[in-house]
């Protein structure tokens, strides 16, 4: 299902390079993504020092158990340090229902509560209005516009110190 989602035009328009062959996707899943998730979770259980490890999570629709998208965190080399980002995508069939915002907020909460992360970044193409909205709903603050691979992105940042007061008022 993950492979078919990456081939939806609405996804690879905003995430070029994600629409690879099924064989390539399977190789990455088996050799990098699953072992990488295990390393990340092990680092969290051993004190939260995650360094440059990545975590890749699926967004699963509760009622059906269907895989409808993903939410990830990792290092974005094109950003100045600290350069840990969150990123996400969701199936065209499930947009506008709050699932992506819920997943992204959950990932932010998990990272700030369980790891040594103090600053998170998120970028979104200027024309990707839905992604920009999700990022803003998660409390990220616009920093500037950056260029990556000849594309212009809004760049956002969220510090744990800015997130904590908002989080405690929601509890």
Structural notes for this entry:
By secondary structure, the chain is α+β, with helices and mostly antiparallel strands. It has one domain (2-170): Aminopeptidase (3-Layer(aba) Sandwich). Helix content is 40%, strand content 27%. It contains six helices and six strands. The protein has helices spanning 2-6, 9-12, 22-45, 99-114, 129-137, 160-170; strands spanning 55-60, 67-75, 84-90, 119-125, 141-148, 151-159. Strands 1-2-3 form a three-stranded antiparallel sheet. The protein has a three-stranded antiparallel sheet with strand order 4-6-5. Strand 2 and strand 3 (84-90) form a beta hairpin. The model has no long low-confidence stretch (mean pLDDT 88).
Number of domains: 1
Number of strands: 6
* Proportion in β-strands: 25-35%
CATH-assigned homologous superfamily: Gcn5-related N-acetyltransferase (GNAT)
What is the overall shape? globular
How many H/I helical runs? Answer: 6
């Amino acid at each position: 299902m993950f492979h078919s989602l990456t081939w939806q035009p609405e996804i690879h328009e905003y995430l070029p390079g994600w629409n690879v062959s099924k064989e390539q996707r399977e190789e990455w899943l088996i050799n990098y993504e699953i072992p990488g998730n295990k390393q990340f979770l092990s680092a969290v259980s051993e004190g939260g020092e995650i360094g440059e490890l990545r975590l890749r999570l699926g967004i699963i629709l509760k009622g059906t158990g269907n895989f409808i998208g993903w939410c990830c965190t990792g290092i974005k080399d094109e950003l100045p340090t600290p350069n840990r980002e969150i990123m996400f995508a969701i199936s065209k069939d499930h947009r506008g229902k709050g699932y992506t915002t819920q997943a992204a907020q959950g990932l932010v909460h998990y990272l700030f509560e369980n790891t040594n992360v103090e600053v998170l970044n998120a970028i979104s193409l200027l024309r990707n209005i839905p992604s920009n909205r999700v990022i803003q709903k998660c409390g990220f603050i616009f920093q500037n516009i950056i260029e990556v691979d000849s594309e212009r992105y809004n760049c956002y940042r969220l510090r744990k110190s800015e997130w904590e007061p908002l989080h405690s008022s929601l509890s």
